[in-house]
Amino acid sequence: MNTLTELSSPPSTDQAEADSAPFFIRGQVIDGADQIHRSRDLGVSFATPKLDLNSLVHPRTELPPLLNTPLSEIIDFLVESGQRLCDPNNEHVQACIDRMAKVSLAPRAVIEHQMLHATEYLDKKVLMEVVEQNFPNPKALDEWVPHTDHQGRRSFIRAYAPRLIHVLPGNSPGMGIRSIAQSALVKSVSLFKMASADPFSTTAFLRTMAEIDPNHPVVQSMSAIYWRGGDDAVERVLYRPQYFDKLVAWGGGDAINNVMKYIGPGFQLVSFDPKTSISMVGREAFASAETLAEAAEFNARDVSILNQEACVCSRFTFLEATPEEGDRYAEVLAERLRIDRTGEGTPRPLDRELKEQIDVLRMMDDDYAVFGKTDGRGVAIRSEEPVDFHPLRKTSNVVCVPDLMEAMKYVNVATQTVGVYPFGRMPALRDHLASGGAQRVVRLGEAGPAAIGNPHDAMYPLHRFVHWMANEDGVEGS
């Protein structure tokens, strides 16, 4: 196998000031400051050791470490790991929060909130329900399950442990916990490529697991490293079917487009593409001051999740209303958006380009109305067509439509979650939303935590992760 040569940088001021982002490779923590990188969003320096690509590949001649570990034992280990992650004295998690607060767009309080709530996934009932929703017969994860078809032909089926590369997102440390857990449930050998916006959390989680048992098969199956996305010297070596079965990719359009060039026979892509979520609010919201306030409050909750960094956050609200009614609604929505829901304190300000775009709209009285301030605490823009930029940092675009069915032309395969008010209108809308390409319909205000084990991005992920293997054994009685 090709080995990556030295990728070190000369000593610099950045090197002295950069936070360490160690690697975790199959139970071992690898420290070093051989390379200096800059985070995607804020340009903050962090240091990583040099890469040894040979250490990242588990030979196909060796069985996956988790293959014969019972699923029940894996779940017990994940539950114990979750308890350790919640411990306020966990030095790995606390150091991770300190470092992430420097590189993340999210305020520190939001990062702490994400880390705390992400561990709720490591609950025995949650993990079992995820498995049961993804696999009609979970025994296939532990053994070769016999099956005889109607012609008497016998088979044995197994959801075999895959070899996965995960390209993790940088906007939610909770996805590292979830990805580790899901990888363990399918008994995979997994390599996690961390994001420059979060090169710390996944390693912190794995180090916590290693302190429980460095030789546990879960720990021995996992590695977490960082390299700059698009680095051909790394990706042309690792992204091969000789070493891995599937690439599980989260991220923006550029990240997904980059990995597509490596996909081919034997090396599949499981893609969680960039998505946009929306809200749909019916005319019923104007029945009274109370219903207007209720709808705006639910709407604001969906906009504000994770400081509007995640795909699940609402960015556009389609409102059955006249422009005058839209102004009333947007004004209340802006007030609700500006409520500090997580103790985030001083938020990150809007970047200059977005702020300037919104300020220009504020001056266009005929077609737009802007409520709130462009200070990162919350702003609502009323319009009759969606704005041509991506709302961020607690920004909502309220688009007035004569009927919610008129909004269906804006729904496509990049539409993830749709929050609906009043709730009783969901059944009449859901077939049209599905036809347009949307993947999830919820009550307005409930876009956050999804029902356990439900499809994500129109698929059952764990079912896609595994290598489905059949052993056919002739006709019964022969």
TrEMBL record:
The reaction(s) this protein catalyses: a long-chain fatty aldehyde + NADP(+) + CoA = a long-chain fatty acyl-CoA + NADPH + H(+)
Entry-linked CDD domains: ALDH_Acyl-CoA-Red_LuxC (cd07080)
Record-listed E.C. numbers: 1.2.1.50
Group of enzyme by EC: oxidoreductase
Keyword annotations: NADP, Oxidoreductase
Coiled coil: none
Family: Belongs to the LuxC family.
Protein name: Acyl-CoA reductase
